[in-house]
Design brief:
alpha+beta, Creatine Kinase, Chain A, domain 2, 15 helices, 46% helix, 14% strand
């Protein structure tokens, strides 16, 4: 399949479906595997990497899950095409830097992606929309079992699966969820959550993983330990923590509505005005403003039919996607102008935030009048976001 077919088709996990999709953008499970007796990619010579690729790639392409799949050699992809795949989380930034001897195979729905000769010989990942960690695990575990029937993986009876990085030894599994938590950020509770999550052995990272910034109020929470714990146990533990973070985010949103509505309304109004009328916008600013628009959809400030347009803009306004859509090389200033134009066009039909309606519904749910709700503006937040995370 040609790369243009991938670039012109949106990933299934971007559809905004699944349990708790208003907060959990995606669930991902990744497995690292290596062939016994072959040097890790980082230590292998070009001929050795090519030999590993020739051994693995046909078996990956023959998987039942990869019928009519996209199979792409890294040296055949342009830098722009690689960056589009990075922005869709289909390959890593590290894999985008690879050339001869590396490849990626993914299904047509772009929910299953297998990198060959990244840091390890195999990096298999399943990604789903919403909170679907167990479904993602079942999908990638099935692929792992099928490949292990024809490939001899490096495995130690005491340590488990052997990987290039010692932190992945054991199950070789990374389980993660991408969360949209503007409530915790605006209520200044996000640092408490990060500290609590870190204390229980989980990691919190930015939009594109380790070493990246948490743009658009998007954070990845994942396991750090892969040794000495069963795969199902890792999934279940992360599932439990994610559900607790979801509860804290929901409480934070209600606190903003009931006790800090002026602050919330100010953010809604400013984001609406800039998104609808700006003529130049940097990617970082766009993500942060679109985050507020997405929150507005969740809280009822905007009609439900606007949600899909906002969700699509998160990806369409990324630098490589802009470049791909324009089909020409753009300078930074040109990208910023095009980004603003696309946002204005996509949100042209979006009405002003329904402030009155939201405040009336909030007051009714709280059992008070809107005027009484305004009197609570000075009150502090509710239960600390650090409490209850275990």
């Amino acid at each position: 399949m040609a790369i243009r077919n991938i670039l012109n088709k949106s990933s299934d996990w971007l559809k905004g479906e699944g349990p708790h999709h208003d907060i959990v953008v995606s669930s991902r499970v990744r497995l690292a595997r290596n062939l016994a007796g072959a040097p890790f990619p980082g230590w292998a010579k070009k001929a050795e990497r090519t030999a590993v690729l020739e051994r693995i790639r046909p078996r990956v392409e023959a998987l039942p899950e990869m019928g009519d799949a996209y199979s792409l050699a890294c040296q055949d992809l342009t830098a722009l095409e690689k960056q589009v795949l990075v922005e869709r989380h289909l390959i890593s930034r590290e894999h985008a830097a690879k050339g001869v001897g590396s490849a990626v195979v993914m299904n047509r729905r772009q929910s299953l992606s297998i990198m060959i000769n990244e840091e390890d010989h195999l990096r298999m990942q399943s990604i789903r929309s919403g909170l679907q960690l167990r479904a993602a695990f079942r999908a990638v575990n099935k692929v792992d079992t099928e490949l292990e029937a024809s490939l001899d993986f490096a495995f130690d009876p005491d340590l488990g699966y052997l990987t290039a990085c010692p932190s992945n030894v054991g199950t070789g599994m990374r389980v993660s969820a991408m969360l949209h938590v503007p409530g915790l950020v605006l209520s200044e509770q996000i640092n408490q959550v990060i500290q609590a999550v870190n204390k229980i052995g989980l990691a919190v990272r930015g939009l594109y993983g380790e070493g990246t910034e948490a743009l658009g109020n998007l954070f990845q929470i994942s396991n750090q330990t892969t040794l000495g714990e069963a795969e199902e146990g890792i999934v279940d533990r992360l599932q439990k923590v994610i559900l607790q973070v979801i509860e804290h985010e929901q409480n934070a949103r209600q606190t903003l509505l009931q006790r800090r509505s002026n602050t919330l309304l100010d953010h809604m109004g400013r984001s609406y005005g800039i998104l609808k009328h700006a003529y130049s916008m940097h990617s970082k600013e766009a993500l942060n403003l679109l985050s507020l628009a997405k929150l507005g959809c969740d809280l009822g400030f905007y009609p439900e039919e606007q949600r899909h347009a906002v969700d699509e803009l998160f990806m369409e306004t990324q630098p490589a996607h802009l470049q791909k859509g324009s089909q020409q090389k753009l300078a930074a200033e040109e990208r910023d102008a095009l980004r603003a134009t696309i946002i204005r066009q996509k949100l042209a039909a979006c009405p002003e935030p329904d402030v009155v309606g939201v405040l009336e519904r909030t007051a009714k749910q709280a059992g008070s009048s809107p005027e009484e709700g305004e009197k609570k503006q000075g009150e502090g937040p509710g239960e600390s976001a650090q409490e209850g995370l275990i």
